[in-house]
Amino acid sequence: MTVELSSVQRRARIHAALGDPARLAIVDALMLGDASPGEVAHQLDLPTNLVAHHVKVLAEAGLLARTRSEGDRRRTYLRLNPDTLAALAPAQLRADGRVVFVCTHNSARSQLAAALWRDRTGGPVASAGTHPAARVHPRAVKVAHRHGLTLDPTATAHVQHVVRGDDLVIAVCDNAYEDLTGNVQPRLHWSVPDPVRVDTDAAFEAAYTDLAARVDRLAPTLTTGADHG
């Protein structure tokens, strides 16, 4: 997965502008409404000359805009630029087909990730393994059930029988990520420890928690072909 350097540089400038506590406080103060520099200085108990300096830095980073009052034309108001704040989010990832989670045996991590994705997004999803087991691990079924998800104990499959050309493939284990070097290659790698090695309820719960957090981070950044139609 590649990230445009220009996007990273822009975000770095914005982060640098927000790196001072006073500037971050000014942004917070303008989050829900506009204010004059004097009002900001009074609200934050800062000298007006210091506010002027911070406003200049924030404006140069594109975070703030100055507007002239339509009433008292001598008065200036500061307004937050929400588009600049939105630019702090990482670039979106495009997926024209399904999301397919892959691990070695397709018996735990990939199954849990697919169930989480289906639950969180309702989008098309599948799972597979590079060396699939005969059945889903009972502890994976158990932890899924504990969190309100359902796994089919017999639904394991090989990547070659599942993955299609337009799928977004995510390897959720190191072995699968390193093994997939042919026509099926993952676009993302999640290094989730194998709970089967430990084979305790706690290990499977930890894997579930790790996968849930990653799914929740990825889901808002993913765009599909339908989003661009």
What are the SSEs and their pairings?
Layout: H1 5-17, H2 21-29, H3 37-44, H4 48-60, E1 64-68, E2 76-80, H5 82-86, E3 93-95, E4 99-103, H6 109-121, E5 125-129, H7 138-146, H8 159-162, E6 168-171, H9 174-179, E7 188-189, H10 195-198, H11 201-218, E8 222-224
The first-to-last residue Cα distance is: 23 Å
Please list the strands of the largest sheet in the order they lie side by side: 5-4-6-7
Q: Secondary-structure element sequence?
A: HHHHEEHEEHEHHEHEHHE
What would you report as the Rg, rounded to the nearest angstrom? 24 Å
Share of residues in helices: 40-55%
The percent range for strand residues is 5-15%
Mean pLDDT: 91
Spans of 5+ residues with little confidence (pLDDT < 50)? none
Biggest pleated sheet: 4 strands, parallel
| Total of helices | 11
Computed structural class: alpha/beta
Write a concise synopsis of the structure shown.
The protein is α/β, with parallel strands linked by helices and 229 residues long.
How would you describe this structure to a colleague?
The chain has eleven helices and eight strands. The protein has 229 residues and is α/β, with parallel strands linked by helices. A four-stranded parallel β-sheet has the order 5-4-6-7. Helix 7 (138-146) packs across helix 11 (201-218). It is elongated.
Give structural attributes.
229 residues, two-stranded antiparallel ribbon, 8 strands, four-stranded parallel beta sheet, alpha/beta
